[in-house]
Amino acid sequence: MNAQPPGWGHQESSLNHVATTVAPLGSGATEPDALARLVELVGADLQACNRTIVARMHSKVALIPQLAAHIVAAGGKRLRPVLTLATARMCGYSGTRHIDLAACVEFIHTATLLHDDVVDESVLRRGMPSANSAFGNKASVLVGDFLFARAFQLMVADGSLRVLGILSRAAATIAEGEVHQLVIQNDLATTEAQYLEVIRGKTAALFSAACEVGAVVADRPEAERAALAEFGDHLGIAFQLVDDALDYAADQSKLGKTVGDDFREGKITMPVLAAYHAGDAAARGFWVRTIEASSQEPHDLDRALELIRATDAIRTTLDLASRFAESAKERLAAFPATELRDALLDVADFTVSRAS
């Protein structure tokens, strides 16, 4: 019998705690009612999904469960797997396939977070030290690869080529979206359409796949599958637009974000594009120097925030997010009114209200 790896006992205890409580996954008293309600409606499935996540994070290589315990402890809303669980039940599914597939969705998401934090040289994730700052870039990349592999094992075990196609395509699209973002970084000639294409790839693709899989396991008609895929796509775009707005307005103590990370990295996001196009010649010159030329001085972030406020760029971004959230809600008209459908409608509203 193999001995347990050094330090595993403590990490196993930490991960098992996650498997037996829903609270870290977004249902606590501090969470908005809309998300708490959705989590409550799929509570038993979410507990089962947690147990799958924990079981699949086991490894005889001690660093893997240690790093996994670190990122699990950072919390997060688990919105993507919850969408899979909720859409499957909304579609009348009574089996258990959706539980492992929800875990698969979470593994893909977590793997991308680990890789993104290395690319972005992040030091915080949800208010805690990021995995790369705590364990190093090499460990973060390799454990991210491990989680991608676990995700594909779950897809194969499910046995559906349709599901495999949806989720594997999403994984490839996410990677393309991240590379596309790298290509347009620092480029103020980026159009709104190009920006939306980036966030559709890097964020909305997994939202869309998570929702479509719910309809697939329930064997729903093609029209309903397409409606849920579009719901997830538009919800994901709204979600990322709000995240990009929060980078210039977030209260770090509440959201675990540091104001100005995107600015310091020269990322092209909607608030920057809106402020650049609405600004005068001096303002545009500022954005060209700080974003395109990457020449930033100590007080430039303060100036950037002033220009964002002066041009109402946050409101422009949130208005666009609201339009996508409303469009997402329209896609649910194809489904009968149920508690789950109503909760999903409320979550679309919550996605935008996070910035208020």
Kindly describe this structure.
- Helices cover 73% and strands 1% of the residues.
- The protein has 356 residues and is mainly α.
- It folds into two domains: 8-159, Farnesyl Diphosphate Synthase (Orthogonal Bundle); 173-335 and 347-356, Farnesyl Diphosphate Synthase.
- A hairpin with a 2-residue loop joins strand 1 and strand 2 (128-129).
- Helix 9 runs antiparallel to helix 10.
- The longest helix has 26 residues, at 192-217.
- The model is unreliable at 1-12 and 17-31 (pLDDT under 50).
Task: Please tag this protein with its features.
Farnesyl Diphosphate Synthase, 356 residues, mainly alpha, disordered N terminus, 18 helices, two-stranded antiparallel sheet, 2 strands, 2 domains, globular
- Please identify, by name, the CATH architecture of the largest domain: Orthogonal Bundle
CATH class value of the largest domain? Mainly Alpha
The radius of gyration is 20 Å
Structural class designation: mainly alpha
Regions with little confidence, pLDDT below 50 for 5+ residues: 1-12, 17-31
In helices, the fraction of residues equals over 70%
CATH third-tier fold name of the largest domain: Farnesyl Diphosphate Synthase
Element string (H = helix, E = strand): HHHHHHEEHHHHHHHHHHHH
Number of strands: 2
Straight-line distance between termini:
55 Å
Major β-sheet profile:
2 strands, antiparallel
Mean of the pLDDT scores? Answer: 89
CATH superfamily of the largest domain: Farnesyl Diphosphate Synthase
Oligomer: single chain
Structural domains: how many: 2
* Number of DSSP helical runs: 18
